[in-house]
UniProtKB/TrEMBL annotation:
It is found in: Nucleus. This is Chromatin remodeling protein EBS-like. GO terms for cellular component: nucleus. Residues 187-216 are annotated as: Disordered. Transmembrane segments: none annotated. SUPFAM superfamilies: FYVE/PHD zinc finger (SSF57903). InterPro entries: BAH_dom, BAH_sf, Zinc_finger_PHD-type_CS, Znf_FYVE_PHD, Znf_PHD, Znf_PHD-finger, Znf_RING/FYVE/PHD. It comes from Flemingia macrophylla. It comes from the Eukaryota.
Amino acid sequence: MAKTRPGRKDLDSYTIRGTNKIVRAGDCVLMRPSDTSKPPYVARVEKIEQDNRNNVKVRVRWYYRPEESIGGRRQFHGAKELFLSDHYDVQSAHTIEGKCVVHSFKNYTKLENVGAEDYYCRFEYKAATGAFTPDRVAVYCKCEMPYNPDDLMVQCEGCKDWYHPACVGMTIEEAKKLDHFVCSECSSDDDMKKPHATFSMSPGPDGKVEPKRRKR
């Protein structure tokens, strides 16, 4: 943690202006953008300081939305997906509009109801280079895309892989009525098992695989 500068003191908490919501180091917050037509920025509070004029500043670590990253938003990025960046900043505490929760990907997929304050993060992001950690993630379906928790998928009872209804010739309504599903490969006489592919998020010779298979 950065040292407190002369004339400043550390604060344990800050009450968001006009509310009774209390922010502490480690909390995730929504911060007002200069362009009010844009959605609020999301950041994790690292430290809260007050100067000798009683101005409160927060040191934050920014989350990036997919469209704010170098590669832009991709098909598999969920509406509530964020990347934890290596971009730190100091902002006036008055720009904090509210609190939010940034879940792990695993915990987000287990939520019964997703509220306006719920987001998730499965990647860390280097703002200068556009590199991601982990560098590779598991892919599913015939389209071989990473999992988007916003999309309904059906699981094959044979290979246990997940498929988008449209990729196997079904509508969403038909998929919701299914009691059982077997993909075309498992229903054929060919018992050959294909290796599980991965999707590269950013250039690099090696990468971890995210072993994630969840159904909404």
